[in-house]
Design brief:
The protein has two helices and two strands; from the N terminus they run H-H-E-E. The protein starts with a helix and ends in a 17-residue tail after the last strand. It is elongated. By secondary structure, it is mainly alpha-helical. Strand 1 and strand 2 form a beta hairpin.
């Protein structure tokens, strides 16, 4: 699987949120309330970003070399760069 730029952003965001979650958890009852607010904020931000939006149904085909699923309109595999034939 290729790493896309947005995956790096999500990973960095998860690390920062996770660090604050653990920090708040050790603060006692006030921290627990902050943890709940943090979880709600992350869910709201994910909704705004379209992360949980409806996935568009897109036709795909398998790469003849590596078997990865690729959009039907791609001329080459996005994982191994093997040309995708029209017959598949």
């Amino acid at each position: 699987m290729s790493m896309q730029a947005e995956h790096g952003v999500y990973l960095a965001f998860a690390v920062v949120v996770g660090a604050f979650f653990v920090l708040f958890a050790f603060m006692g009852p006030v921290g627990w309330i902050l943890d709940v607010l943090l979880v709600f904020a992350v869910i709201k931000l994910a909704g705004w970003s379209g992360l949980f939006g409806s996935a568009s149904v897109q036709e795909k085909r398998n790469c003849p070399e590596c078997g990865a699923r690729n959009p039907i309109d791609r001329p080459a595999c996005e994982y191994c760069a093997e040309p995708l034939s029209e017959g598949r």
